[in-house]
Design a protein that fits this description.
Length: 330
């Protein structure tokens, strides 16, 4: 029996990926003994040498997060998965390391990879989880309204994961994520959100989101074909798709969020617009030190003035006549 340490992206896809991997390990007699969420922010580079010298416990599994050459297992789907060009150049696929930037979600990628290479059973519980996460992480919702709804179990789990109040208690923050990883497949999302300890908080977070969505729709402006908004304390919980309600035909959005000491610039594409995105937003974000996928990108900077400067440049790129040729370099 082998005990592994799990490192995963701190979102629905990351926790779901961890859940599938835990199910796989336990079915073959192994286990996960620690659960560490990771986020793309300045703390990731806090150690001397940054990500390259990150303090991992060994052996470890790394899912839904950028590549690290010391990972015993690594599976990811981000287009910007490799921090260093030499890491990508030397990367070789094997039976414990896999990358596919075309995958809708890391969760689905993990499940399919383990099924193909190890005969891992894609049970109905696993298939249901993958279907929800594939839909969410690739924003494959059929309509804008379906992207913004708050009543499905998956959306309620997302609200709990994004609850900033719960993050103030670090122990509670970690315990909830570990609970999800251990129970996504055992209980399923629907049973989890019905648990009495979560119901009151879900209702409060749903109302908070509805209020924030309504407020942010009053703050957005249209700059060419790009929706621009600076999120404030009252709108920090708004959905990233909420601005498209005001300008449904705008193909892009650029949103600045105060993350408490640093600022996140989110670049999004409107999948429900008649005018489709022609630029790789993940590559565009990567040119500023961030990353993402073709349809969504993000980066973090240390000051609002820097965030506003970069946002202005990005808006200029997205409005350029030759926008289809932009994104991979700057």
């Amino acid at each position: 029996m082998s005990d592994f340490h799990l490192y995963y992206h701190d979102d629905l896809d990351g926790t779901a990926s961890g859940a599938v991997f835990l199910d796989f390990l336990r079915k073959r007699g192994d286990d996960l003994v620690s659960f560490t969420p990771l986020e793309y922010n300045s703390q990731l580079e806090a150690n001397p040498g940054g990500w390259e010298n990150h303090d991992f416990q060994h052996p470890f599994v790394l899912v839904d997060f950028q590549y690290h050459p010391k990972a015993d297992w690594w599976i990811d789907h981000h287009a910007s998965a490799f921090k260093k060009p030499e890491w990508q150049a030397s990367f070789k696929e094997d039976d414990q390391h896999h990358w596919d930037a075309s995958a809708p979600s890391a969760c689905g990628l993990v499940a399919r990879f383990l099924h193909e290479h190890y005969g891992y059973e894609l049970s109905p519980a696993v298939a249901d989880l993958v279907a929800v996460v594939d839909m969410d992480d690739s924003a494959a919702y059929p309509t804008l309204a379906s992207a913004l709804e708050l009543d499905s179990p998956g959306k309620q789990i997302q609200l709990l994961l994004g609850d900033t109040e719960s993050k103030k208690d670090h122990g509670q923050y970690l315990a909830f994520r570990e609970f999800l990883i251990k129970n996504f497949i055992v209980l399923g999302m629907e049973k989890i959100v019905r648990l009495p300890e979560y119901q009151p908080r879900i209702k409060k977070l749903q109302e908070q989101r509805r209020v924030a969505d309504a407020l942010i729709q009053k703050l957005v402006s249209l700059q060419g074909k790009v929706i621009y908004v600076e999120k404030n304390a009252a709108t920090t919980h708004a959905a990233r798709w909420a601005p498209y309600v005001v300008y449904p035909e705008a193909p892009y959005s650029v949103q600045i969020s105060d993350k408490g000491g640093e600022f996140k610039i989110g670049i999004g594409s409107n999948k429900w617009s008649k005018e489709k995105s022609t630029v790789d937003l993940g590559a565009l974000a990567r040119s500023y030190g961030g990353g993402g996928h073709r349809g969504v990108g993000a980066l973090v900077v240390k000051s609002k003035s820097e965030a506003m400067r970069i946002a202005k440049e990005i808006i200029g790129v997205l409005n350029a006549p030759d926008v289809s040729s932009r994104g991979s370099d700057r």
